[in-house]
Amino acid sequence: MTALWTSAEAAAATHGTATRDFAITGISIDTRTLLPGDLFVALKDMRDGHDFVAQALEKGAAAALVSHRPEGLPEDAPLLIVADVLRGLEDLGRAGRARSSAKVAAITGSVGKTSTKEMLRVMLAAQGKVHVAEASYNNHWGVPLTLARMPRDTDLAVLEIGMNHPGEIAPLARLARPHVVMITTVAPAHLAAFGGIDGIAEEKAAICEGLEPAGIAVLPLGLDVTPILLRAAERAGAEIVTFGEGEATWALTSAIVTPDVTVGTARTPLGPLDFKVASPGRHFAVNALGALATAAALGADEAVAAADLVTWAPPAGRGMREKIALDPLDETLYFELIDDAFNANPVSVAAGLGLLLAAGPRHGIGRIEKGRRIAVLGDMLELGPDELALHADLAALPGMERVDLVHCVGPRSRVLYEALPIRQRGEWVATAPELVARAAQLVDAGDVLLVKGSKGIKVSLVVAALRNLRKTPAERQTEG
What domains appear along the chain, each with residue ranges and CATH number? Predict the structure, then answer.
């Protein structure tokens, strides 16, 4: 396997000292997923990564990036010693970007970053050697890690850039030096840190500060804050491409949403374009259109990209749909689970509700004659002083009246529970584990159930409990 970095290259990039010669084929920050040949990066987070260097080397790491020699290591242990490990990772990422001739796209936005990035992964797969950020590696260590992992012969790269506080995006964008940036949308998220939607828009727009000369900015049209995004792109000297509806450069002219797919038609600078997303939801069509515009800006063939888009499906926690059989002997006795439990803000909850409404319950097959649409909604975090009003407002979302039962999780969601009509109120609990214990009573064959909430409220535990219902009693007893 071709070396990703030799010891000499890594030492030069990080201004560090290699204790011996080595060659690495990958980079890891977690011993649980480390592969033989990786460089283990001893970051400090909840734990100090230096405490795991010995374990990493025992698992086959080619070397470790450290700020000092951990106690107990042999004298000949392969180490790359730097003044600061995070800075060393940033330097390695900067060097990885500098040596690459790849066309680079960077994506940010309040909602849909990871889904859109994954759409681009499948759209570009047949159009060159593609390097894409893993998972949600979009923060102060995720972006440099993605750049440091980029193979020398990459043709197209897609990065994701996120934020929690002001001033985070611009440095990461300057590190990434993208040729194309895309902003999916701007929504009330992390309001506690920004004070208002305009502040969020300014921070998202800062991604333009990293654009390479003659770069392209792909921006959503029709938002109240679109002018803020446009001004930032203009200041950066970017070519501006818009997506959305109406007068957008890439305009969605129709979106047909069925229980299984969304079929879109768009007006583009390259002519009319039809595309299909293998998941229901108008928001998926809009994100896909922005991704198609981004692919075209990278120089990809948009027709091939649209054809390959059909292989994409939402990942776990981001709208993934699956059938959970309640009887191992009768596969027709199932309910449908929509796992959208990774994050939540008012806009993404509305999008998740759209997924639930597009799905069709089945009647006459469960204990309850009528199949139901059920939502488990957890707290939306970091929304600032108006958080309670924003939670209560969810009760008035268009289509909410079509949901049969709403279970609410978390102290903030108590106001949502009280704002709902009595006929829709399921259970309110302060913490997710309280609902986990009643998973079997939440759902019946024929139902469709959406789970949505901010990561910190841990409604993913409810998702896991619902998935566990597919197992036989003997299997569940063995796990217990």
Answer: 5-88 (3.40.1390.10), 100-311 (3.40.1190.10), 320-479 (3.90.190.20)
